[in-house]
Amino acid sequence: MTVLIDARGIAPGGRVSADVCVIGTGPAGAVVATELAHRGVDVVVVEGGGQRFGPRQADTYRGEAVDLHDPLEAVRQKRLGGTSAVWGGRCAPLDELDLGPREWMHTAGWPITAEEVGPYYRRAQRHLQAGQYEYSAARAGFPAATVPPSETLDVDSTWRWSPPTSFAGRMRVLAKASNVRLLVEATVVRLERDPVGGAIVEAVVAPSPGVEITVGARTYVLAAGGLESARILLASNRQSPAGVGNEHDQVGRHYMTHPVGEVGTVVLSDLGRNLALGYVPTRDGVYARRMLALTPAAQARHEVGNLKAALWFPDPTDPSHGDGLLSTFSLTYYALNRARLGFKSAGTHARYAGTSGLGRHVGNVARDWRRVGGFAASWAAPRVTGRRILPSFMPLDGATCRLRFDAEQSPDPANRVILSHERDQLGQRRLQVHYGVSGDDRGRIRRSMTLIGEEFDRLGYGTVVMDDAARIDDMAFTDGTHQMGLLRMAHSPRDGVVDAECRVHGSANLFVAGSAVFPTAGAVGPTLTIAALACRVADRIAADRTVREPLVAS
């Protein structure tokens, strides 16, 4: 029987105690809790949401975006398993250059090396069910293809896809263990700190308006997501007026996401089609895709940031394409936007709210019904059989396609979150977001995409026309699903919030797990690195504890 403790049933003023308190049940919190529980550590896990994400939970996540940014309640999920419930599953490690110093990007790099992080990626891979730790297309079992040598373009690196893993189910299983207690409907509103030693003495939880309980522990792990973790530290200001870890005004600064967009027109040659640029099952049965990326040497030579590109289908919003599949996609996302269904109405999906020519789209679907029906059947089959799900809609069988990019954003202290004066139903001050993508970053993205397009063309993979690259200067880039940098890792509290072990400066028993600690963003989704750093945090916490036989239920 799954044991979830609803905090609303605990008497006001009640206290729960454990050796370690983990705040959050998304990928970061779930991995830390699992790793510690399997070592026999007594763990209490605190989750602000419940089994589902609804209007009540969304309201406590609402905030104010001063500049262009998706609604804060649309880019995260307050529920068991956190935002893993809507995660697409894309995995890749950061590149070695992401962690090192780059003068042209004005970044000093991370206070830990790629060699230190490397071993944890393999453990993270298992937590995310992403198969082998192998991100080379040639070694992962992609079809053999001729790859002309290039000092500019790398086409061997890949993304891999988790099923995707939702950690809600993992947490329900973990809650059966005798050394684990899982509290739901338990929003942490602040951390109380010893004013002399700086240690955290309790986490204050508000299960419902006007009610507080506390959680006591020797060690705390803040794993509530980038935005919410920053909010909790800022709100923990009873002993430290600026908040915990914020003596040098670093909490909430250097907010980074990944600018995403599509540009160009590509007509593939036979050589390009032989690269297998769509989804490919690897030898171990995991879906993967090739990345198109500039080599580290080319990035340094042209002084650009990291960026990963891939082939993308033509713009589906204009019904003149006559393609039933593209019209089906456009109509589906139009409907999701109208219904304002979370992630599907935010980020790059938001533009589908303006889809026009709906009747012509319906006509395209009707005329192309056989192809649409065939695709629908192939899409539904894995869901019935329980096999791995095709990661996304990706028809590349037309005459032309585009190049999509996921780009690195440079850390900027002006991109930040602060507490507003408005409060939510639990009495918490809401977040106010100040965020934008700089002209320098846009210029680097434009140069990178132009270089990738030119080299792709030169190598004979296809004809590439990049006459719309200037659009990058005006793209909205509002997607806030990857919340990085807000509690960045640094040797000194003057430069960041946590140290090289992800321990908050000035609070020796408080760790942060999640992408908020990233000093730089890289150009791949953060989840694999989140899980890797979570494994590392668990090792640091467990190192000074007596190892007992694990008590976790199988």
Explain what you see.
The chain is built from 14 helices and 21 strands. Strand 18 (416-423) and strand 19 form a beta hairpin. The model is unreliable at 547-554 (pLDDT under 50). Strands 1, 2, 3, 8, 9, 10, 11 and 21 form an 8-stranded mixed beta sheet that branches. Strands 6-15-16-17-12-20 form a 6-stranded antiparallel beta sheet. Strands 5-7-14-13 form a 4-stranded antiparallel beta sheet, with no helix packed on it. Helix 1 runs parallel beside helix 6 (167-174), helix 1 packs parallel to helix 14 (527-542) and helix 4 (114-127) crosses helix 14 (527-542). It has 554 residues and is of the alpha/beta class.
Summed up, what is this model?
This protein is an alpha/beta fold. 27% of the residues lie in helices and 19% in strands.
Features:
554 residues; alpha/beta; eight-stranded mixed β-sheet; six-stranded antiparallel β-sheet
Number of alpha- plus pi-helical segments: 14
The helix-and-strand class reads: alpha/beta
- Poorly predicted ranges: 547-554
> Percent of residues in helical segments?
25-40%
- Radius of gyration, in Å, reads 23 Å
Shape: globular
The average pLDDT is 91
- Give the termini distance in whole angstroms: 12 Å
How is this fold's topology laid out?
Layout: E1 5-6, E2 15-23, H1 27-37, E3 43-46, H2 55-61, E4 64-65, E5 90-91, H3 96-99, H4 114-127, H5 137-140, E6 153-154, E7 158-161, H6 167-174, E8 180-184, E9 187-193, E10 200-206, E11 213-222, H7 226-235, E12 260-268, H8 270-274, E13 280-281, E14 287-290, E15 292-294, H9 296-302, E16 307-312, H10 324-339, H11 358-367, H12 369-385, E17 401-407, E18 416-423, E19 429-434, H13 439-458, E20 462-465, E21 510-512, H14 527-542
Parallel strand pairs: 1-8, 2-3, 2-11, 3-8, 4-19, 11-21
Antiparallel strand pairs: 5-7, 6-15, 7-14, 9-10, 10-11, 12-17, 12-20, 13-14, 15-16, 16-17, 18-19
Helix pairs in contact: 1-6, 1-14, 4-14, 10-11
